[in-house]
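Subject: complex prediction, re-run

Hi both,

The earlier run crashed halfway through, so I resubmitted it with identical inputs.
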Amino acid sequence: MQYIDLHCHMSSRTTDDYHMMALTGCVAITEPSFWAGYDSCTPDYFRDYFHRLTDYEPKRAAQYGIQHYAWLCLNPKEAENREMAKAVLKIIPEFMDMPNILGIGEIGLNRVTRNELATFIDHVELAMQTNELIHIHTPHLEDKYKGTKVMVDTLISDKRLTPGRVMLDHSEEHTIEMILGNGFWTGLTLYPTTKVTHGRAVDMIERYGTERICVASACDWGPSHPIAVPEFIAEMRRRGHSEETIRKVVYENPAEFLSQCPKFKLKHTEPGAVLRFA
Amino acid sequence: MDQYEKSCPLTQKEVLDADFMKARNNLLEIAAFLDRLDRAKALDGEDDFRLVAFRRVLKDVANHESDKVKRMQMGLSDLSIEPMVERDVQTAFGAVKM
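This time it finished cleanly. Structure:
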């Protein structure tokens, strides 16, 4: 089955991973701006990084027939540094018109601090200026509930914003209802220990349905699995879910969300897929 | 009645046939983790916020109420709503540091 992996940090992965993803049906990926594992020393790093996301990675993915799209921001892990954030916010517009850039992301909160929240709001402001799609990282572990609530409250108080154009990613059992209930899209990220296993992701699909939910590998430089989406597909089949239901989650839903940006155009169409945005 | 009753398309027998061995193994891993803590050469973590939280939410596994995962998640979460004045550490701990 063809699938779209809406969240993978391919800059941290090898070419072998693109190969495996292509062999298992991946036709398109989106790569949110990420944290290198250490805080950057200079804003110039981000100019190089954004160049990689808009030039080198799309070419590398294309070798395997995978369409590569990306999101730009200063990742929440570095959002505490307000000076750096302000400098990076000035660089981002230089790249927004690149053909593979779909919007602003993954912005969000990490430890849920005042500075992180200020940087989050600055990014939302930037997105609103040109009506960009927004991709949001919700914090991990003990910070997830608090960070998700703070961001949901902030976003719904901004009447300019359309929740259907915002993805709050990394939801789990205690945050998914708050995200979907307020009209946002959400993602279940299939990560071995700190996020959601494919078994728990299927449990959440069974409980909350398939509307406005996507799944992704969120693969990066940490312990993660670039073909986590096919593992999810296998678990859905094992539990007896229909091919139509599975296709909706792994292909139609991400296509529907991403197609709100006119730059997102799939070259491949999954046989039997119902593309409501077409 | 639980609003999610019968949302899993498998029968209980089918779930047991498919997942019991894996769940049994996970349970033994937790027991072994707790035994290892008991056997540690220094009992210097008894008041550690992670262990305190772990023991507290473990009780939720054994009860018969629904929404066990959600209740465990909430039991391990920071339920305050005020942002921190300044970042303390880069990476979360998995339980709330008191």
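Chain B touches chain A through 32 residues (CB under 8 Å).

- K.
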